[in-house]
Amino acid sequence: MKEDELIRSAAAAVAAEAMLQPEQIPAIDLYMDQVITVLEQGIGRSGREADERPMTKAMINNYTKGGVIRPVKGKKYSKEQIIQLLLVYYLKGTLSLQDIKGLIGGLSACGGEKAAQRAYLALLRCRSAAAELAPQAAVEIAAKAGGGPDARTCAIFACAATAELMRRTAQALIDGAEAERREK
After folding, report:
1. In what helix (H) or strand (E) does residue 37 lie, and over which residues does it extend?
2. For residue range 80-113, what is the model confidence (pLDDT) as tens digits?
3. Rg of the Cα trace of the chain?
4. CA nearest 32: which of 82, 67, 80?
5. Residue 72 gets which letter from DSSP?
6. What is d(CA 109, CA 54) in angstroms, rounded to the nearest whole number?
């Protein structure tokens, strides 16, 4: 297989991974074990290791205690809180928990009860758009960079460099929004 096809194939495989849709989340409040089950079934394999879990009880408890997601009423999590956990899951590889907490808190403050769901749907649309662009972008960036030790290594560098630039851009946008809030 040509290196370009290998790069496209790897990017396409990652982009094709299913994401849990809001309608797949039960409308009733769930206990912690049920939340874990929903996340595991909806997200599937979360990492490179077969036994990695998308979220653990300790992680969820820490997100709740730290105010990253809304407080739990009793011992049950609402659909909106599960969606907040999904936002945390998909953003934590890129943004700090402090940034995520600010984003989720800002959503709740100005967007009402379904704010997290609207934000999550936007994240799904953005991921879908990025999935269409990522395979070709990886090939083009690697080619534009002029190669390296081999095409695969150059593609790895291209993906890592792009991720780093996009992460820093997201952070700059968050910092700009925070500065605007302070000025008001």
Report:
1. helix 32-43
2. 999 999 999 999 989 999 999 999 888 866 766 6
3. 18
4. 82
5. P
6. 27
